[in-house]
Specification:
Length: 92
């Protein structure tokens, strides 16, 4: 396994914990959470928002680190929605 893969696996584990212990507890789980209703553009906007906050340090280091987990979670949902849209377009 590559070093980058090991880095990703450690990060993915943290993202998974964040989803289970923070996001789902606070907002619910698919398909009953609000994120399910987000459009592709809305998800892109959320990713941009969290990316823009990285350099502000206004919320502290811990929140900045949590924002990276949120970015990854939104990216995963975006990936799923893009896949779903692709399949819908192929069916029509």
């Amino acid at each position: 396994m590559s070093n980058r893969r090991s880095e990703w696996d450690a990060f993915a584990y943290k993202v998974g914990k964040h989803i289970d212990e923070y996001t789902v507890k606070q907002y619910g789980d698919y398909p009953d959470d609000k994120l399910t209703e987000y459009s592709i553009d809305s998800i892109v906007q959320e990713i941009k928002k969290y990316c823009a906050r990285v350099h502000t340090n206004a919320r502290g280091r811990d929140e900045t680190m949590r924002d990276t987990l949120k970015i990854a979670h939104y990216a995963a949902v975006l990936h799923s929605k893009l896949q779903e849209e692709r399949w819908k377009n192929q069916e029509t």
